[in-house]
Write a structure and sequence with these properties.
mainly alpha
C-alpha cells in the first residue's frame, strides 16, 4: 500500500472530452426509436400450437383405428345368425307352451283380475270373433 503522503489532492478520474455536449444528443437518439423494430411473427410460429393439437388428435385416431383392427378383425364371422322375424317367431316364441305360462302366474292374482263371466258370454264372444263352433265345444 502507498503511503498517504504519496496520494495527491488531484482526482485520478477524468470526464471524456465533449461528454456534456454529446450526452443530450445520444439520449435523444436512443429514445426516439433508433432501435430496430422486432420481426413480425411468421405464420408457422402463430399456427404451431394448433398444428401440435391437430397432430396429436390425428395420432390418437390412427392408434385407435389400428388397435381396433388388431383386436377386432373385420373378417371374423358374426356369432349371432341373421334371422328374419318369422324365423325368430317360429324358433323362439312358439317354444313356450301355455302350461309353462300358466305355471308362472299366481292363481290368486289371476282370479282377482278376471271378473265372473258365464260360459254363454264366452261362447257369444268367440262366435263374434269367428271362432269355429267345433273348436269352441272342444275347449269347453
Amino acid at each position: 500500500m502507498k503511503d498517504l503522503k504519496e496520494i495527491t489532492d488531484k482526482s485520478p478520474f477524468k470526464v471524456p472530452e465533449n461528454y456534456f455536449e454529446e450526452v443530450n444528443r445520444k439520449i435523444i437518439l436512443s429514445t426516439t426509436g433508433a432501435e430496430p423494430m422486432p420481426k413480425p411473427e411468421g405464420l408457422f410460429r402463430r399456427l404451431k400450437p394448433f398444428l401440435a393439437v391437430a397432430a396429436s388428435v390425428a395420432l390418437l385416431i390412427l392408434l385407435s383405428y389400428t388397435a381396433l383392427n388388431i383386436f377386432l378383425p373385420a373378417d371374423k364371422p358374426s356369432e349371432m345368425p341373421e334371422l328374419s322375424f318369422q324365423e325368430f317367431f317360429d324358433s323362439y316364441l312358439n317354444d313356450f307352451d301355455i302350461l309353462t305360462l300358466e305355471e308362472g302366474t299366481d292363481p290368486l292374482a289371476y282370479n282377482e283380475k278376471v271378473p265372473d263371466v258365464s260360459d254363454a258370454e264366452i261362447i257369444d264372444y268367440l262366435i263374434l270373433e269367428d271362432v269355429d263352433l267345433n273348436d269352441i265345444y272342444e275347449i269347453l
